[in-house]
Design goal:
The complex is a heterodimer. Chain A is built from 32 helices and two strands. Chain A has helices at about 5-10, 15-30, 35-40, 65-85, 95-110, 115-135, 140-175, 180, 185-195, 195-210, 220-225, 230-240, 240-255, 260-280, 285-305, 315-345, 360-375, 380-400, 405-430, 450-465, 470-485, 500-520, 520-535, 540-560, 565-590, 605-620, 625-645, 650-670, 685-705, 720-730, 735-745, 745-770; strands at about 45-50, 55-60. Chain B is built from four helices and no strands. The chains are: A mainly alpha, B mainly alpha.
């Protein structure tokens, strides 16, 4: 399984779309060969140590759920790459496009086969980043950039919440490995009983909801439609947005069966389903309609994954999984059809279209099949999973009892009605009726086969799964559902169940849907009016306020915190130093100045120290640069003498060499800078600066005097190690040198890097002068 | 380090350095930074040195002395270097602080050189070394 990633990565540099499609085919075959063993209930595992000290390894785990996602990702991937050959103009930067698509596919596959949650998080964020790059593929369009930024901000920050949730989970279980937790029932019990349970659940769900555009996070998906259409079909309908659903399914065994799970997951799903379905009416962009429908379809799955009680875990799991597969087929197909239509008519505005069935009959048929599947019309695959959705909603309502017994099925039907209405809108608005705009090109025709075959293939799949569901169910859905539920699942799916309640609900849906469709334009107009009247009543408005506000706020913040001149910073720093260093020290020390002061120094040392102070004073008092510099280098040389008294010959040597160089550099610089400026010290400035500097000096003195009183440190100095081991381990007699080149070699490496960087900086600064002149 | 005079000297260096970096002249500020780094180096080295300590170079005069006879610190009684244990003749000063300071000296050379060149370039662009004036010119 691990072979998939290197395989995908190796070819990132290759150019041609067909080649990319071949890679996707290869991944599909790799995933598909795992199907038989998973159907037999054997999961695939493999791992490579990565960060063993943290318990993180590069490990892969394939169960039914992963395999299903793997099949969807690579299967749709093939079609998308093939389709792109024709869709993308040859003038575009195709290598970048395919590189990013393949990168996305690789990270998506990596994510679903990750066994380690840290690894899962990394791949998760990689999909966010590649999605960002693909949405912003047309860099020159402001809307692309806006959409890309929005999606990155929302999905990536959702990922951070998810990471926090994973870490909480790690605190509970003590492992990062998903497979370990899944195979250990007592551990799952521990999670459910733990006090951090809700905390972890909410954090992870925020991540999942942000990725799958659920709840308030939905706003990024409509803007993500600025991406090239094949990208929308791939990322924003079939695969990436399902990552959140995948996560919910993956953690289902850990968290389900609790009230919190039902309320959070199903509640979020149902609300999103209704809201997004309703909001879809207003869209005039065909991709916008599809975006809202994706949100609401994903919410179906969310809601179904949330259906669970203690007695009956996972009532809706099989239905949700089935719907996931079906949605991937018909929605990718719809997007590809939308791509064809937009390609041929050069617009995406549905109000300008109409009557296209005469110009492109094949596209019309394909699009209708997919849209009817979405509407839940038999005998297409959408019908089957919609039925299962109704069934599980009924069952769930029945189990809960009370008003919920009717509310949950009613919400499900209402969601279905909205879906029916906008699906019909898609067919009617584009293909039926008469032309509504004269601006459309006169001669529209069917696209070439390259663009027709991928959606046609998906449409055939839609019909096949609808007519013969048992194959897909046996090989894909049952293993996937048992991967989620951790037990054998057997489903019986067929077109005709007899007159069940679910069938009644479907019929109600169709009737209500048709009735609603007659009012479609009126509702859309009402939404438009509401939006114009109350612009603040929208999440997009809040998002724009926050993001646009951030720029203004941050510059205002910077203006306050970083006024520019160095002095305020220094004063703030020194005050902080006084507060943090001096005051606690004075609280600890009983007296400011310890009694046993030791002035008993040899006279030569006393003279030396006196000279240092004198020279340092000189740097402050002497007006001319030259004099001040000579004084400061005198300080340096004198200090090197002090080093000798302090038994540090190496330091003395270094100090002398460095001081020499330093003096030379200083002199060279002042040769070029004539001293034109003289600061006039006013009395008040002088008094203030003297006050600050003497406060610093006194603090240092008090700290030093108290520090030399032999306060025992609570730990042993590490110096003894170096002293004892410099000869036995490093065969060096000069301990300082041994420390520098052996024990702390990396420090020295860092030091050399600093010097190199400084050198480069100096070089560039001097270079930049000759350029500007 | 229990030499009060040295402490006073370091404290004075700190005070003078602080005074210098509060100046408006860039070159003076650079000098102030140098003085401060001198003071810091001196502080760190003196923390590891003590009366009677030996240079941390193992010579042939004390064969076998490298094998752990140096400090007999007694954590329970709160005795640690730089207190010289009684009865021990050969004691090295702390080599670690010296190694750290050696690195610090070299790095401060690099940063000061960079700083000076920066001053030089700013002077070229703006024709002054007055920090407030440059600030005003920038707007």
């Amino acid at each position: 399984m691990a072979g998939i990633l290197p395989a995908a990565e190796k070819v990132l540099k290759k150019r041609i779309g067909w080649y990319a499609a071949a890679i996707a085919l290869m991944s599909l075959l790799l995933v598909a060969q795992a199907v038989p063993s998973v159907v037999n209930g054997e999961n695939i595992q493999g791992s490579v140590p990565w960060l063993p000290s943290l318990g993180i390894e590069l490990s892969f785990y394939g169960d039914g759920l992963s395999i299903m996602f793997g099949l969807i990702v690579s299967g749709v991937g093939i079609l998308i790459m093939a389709y792109s050959n024709e869709y993308m103009s040859k003038r575009e930067d195709l290598s970048r496009y395919y590189r990013q698509l393949l990168m996305f596919m690789g990270s998506m596959l990596g994510m679903v086969f990750s066994s380690n949650i840290i690894q899962l998080f990394i791949f998760w964020e990689l999909t966010s980043i590649t999605s960002f790059m693909l949405i912003g593929y047309w860099r020159n369009r402001p809307m692309s950039v806006y959409g890309a930024t929005k999606s990155l901000l929302i999905t990536a920050s959702g990922g951070i919440f998810m990471l926090a949730g994973f870490l909480v989970l790690n605190i509970i279980t003590g492992t990062f490995d998903i497979a370990t937790v899944l195979q250990n029932e007592s551990m799952i019990e521990t999670i459910k009983g733990h006090e951090f349970f809700l905390f972890a659940l909410v954090l992870i769900l925020i991540g999942a909801a942000a990725k799958s555009a659920q709840g308030p996070f939905y706003i990024w998906l409509p803007n993500a439609m600025e991406a090239p259409t094949p990208v929308s079909a791939f990322l924003h309908s079939a695969t990436m947005v399902k990552a959140g659903i995948y996560l919910v399914a993956r953690i289902h065994p850990l968290f389900s069966g609790t009230d919190a799970w039902f309320i959070l997951v199903s509640g979020l799903g149902i609300i999103t389903m209704l809201a997004a379905g309703f909001l879809a009416f207003r869209q005039t962009d065909i991709k916008g309609i599809l975006a809202y429908s994706t949100i609401s379809q994903l919410a179906y799955m969310m809601a179904m994954y949330g259906y669970t009680t203690y007695q009956y875990p996972g009532i809706g799991v099989a239905a949700a999984t089935f719907h996931l597969l079906n949605h991937a087929t018909f929605k990718a197909c719809l997007f590809l059809v939308a791509g064809i239509v937009a390609h041929e008519t050069a617009t995406r505005d549905i109000t300008k279209m109409g009557g296209l069935r005469k110009d492109m009959p094949v596209t019309f048929i394909i699009g209708s099949i997919a849209a009817l599947a979405m509407a839940g019309v038999p005998p297409l695959n959408g019908f089957l999973s919609k039925e299962m959705f109704y069934e599980s909603s009924l069952e769930m309502g029945h189990l809960l009892g009370g008003p919920l017994e009717y509310l949950i099925p009613a919400a499900a039907v209402l969601g279905g009605v909205f879906t029916f209405a906008y699906s019909i809108r898609f067919i009617d608005g584009i293909f039926l009726g008469k032309r509504r705009s004269e601006h459309l090109p006169k001669h529209m025709h069917e696209p070439s086969l390259i663009m027709l075959v991928p959606p046609a293939f998906l449409a055939i799949l839609v019909i096949l799964i609808g007519l013969f569901p048992s194959v897909a169910v046996q090989y894909i859905i049952e293993p996937a559902a048992s991967g989620i539920l951790l037990q054998e699942v057997h489903l019986h799916v067929s077109l005709w169940h007899g007159f069940t309640a679910a069938l009644m609900m479907t019929i109600i849906t169709f009737i209500a849907g048709i009735a609603l469709y007659t009012k479609y334009d009126a509702i859309a107009a009402w939404q438009d009016r509401m939006n114009a009247r109350y612009p603040w009543f929208s999440i997009n408005y809040a998002y724009d306020r926050i993001v646009n506000g951030a720029q203004g706020k941050s510059s205002a913040f910077a203006a306050v915190m970083q006024p520019g001149p160095v002095k305020p910073y220094l004063v703030a720093l020194l005050l902080l130093f006084l507060v943090l260093g001096a005051i606690p020290a004075m609280l600890v020390a009983t007296t400011l100045v310890p009694a046993d002061l030791n002035f008993n120094v040899p006279p030569y040392e006393g003279i030396l120290l006196g000279l240092i102070v004198l020279a340092a004073l000189g740097t402050a008092i002497l007006r001319k640069y030259l004099h001040a510099i000579l004084a400061v280098s005198a300080v340096g040389y004198l200090i090197s003498l002090v080093f000798i008294y302090l038994q540090a010959p190496d330091l003395a040597m270094t100090q002398i060499l460095v001081e020499t160089l330093f003096t030379i550099i200083f002199l060279l610089v002042i040769l070029k800078i004539p001293q034109t400026f003289r600061e006039n010290l006013t009395r008040s400035v002088l008094a203030r600066d003297l006050l600050i500097s003497s406060a610093v000096g006194i603090t240092v003195l008090v700290l030093l005097l108290n520090a030399t009183q032999g306060i025992a440190s609570p730990f042993e100095s590490i110096s003894y190690y170096f002293i004892e081991n410099s000869v036995p381990l490093a065969r060096g007699h000069n301990m300082v040198n041994v420390i520098l080149v052996d024990f702390r070699g990396y420090d020295t490496l860092g030091e050399i890097v600093v010097i190199c960087l400084a050198g480069l900086g100096v070089y560039n600064l001097i270079k930049s002068r000759s350029d500007s002149k | 380090m229990n030499n009060t005079l040295l402490s006073v000297c370091i404290a004075l260096l700190f005070a003078i350095g602080t005074f210098m970096i509060l100046r408006r002249d860039m070159i003076k500020v650079a000098i102030g930074i140098t003085v401060l780094s001198h003071a810091t180096n001196l502080l760190i080295v003196s923390a590891g040195a003590f009366l009677g300590g030996r240079t941390p170079i193992i010579t042939s005069e004390d064969p076998g002395s490298s094998s752990g006879i140096i400090f007999t610190d007694d954590l329970a009684n709160g005795i640690l270097a730089p207190i010289i244990p009684k009865g021990t003749e050969m004691v090295f000063v702390d080599p670690l602080v010296q190694a750290l300071t050696l690195t610090a000296i070299v790095i401060s050379l690099a940063t000061t050189a960079f700083l000076l060149i920066l001053c030089y370039r700013i002077y070229q662009e703006h024709g002054t070394t007055d920090v407030s004036e440059i600030r005003r010119l920038k707007g």
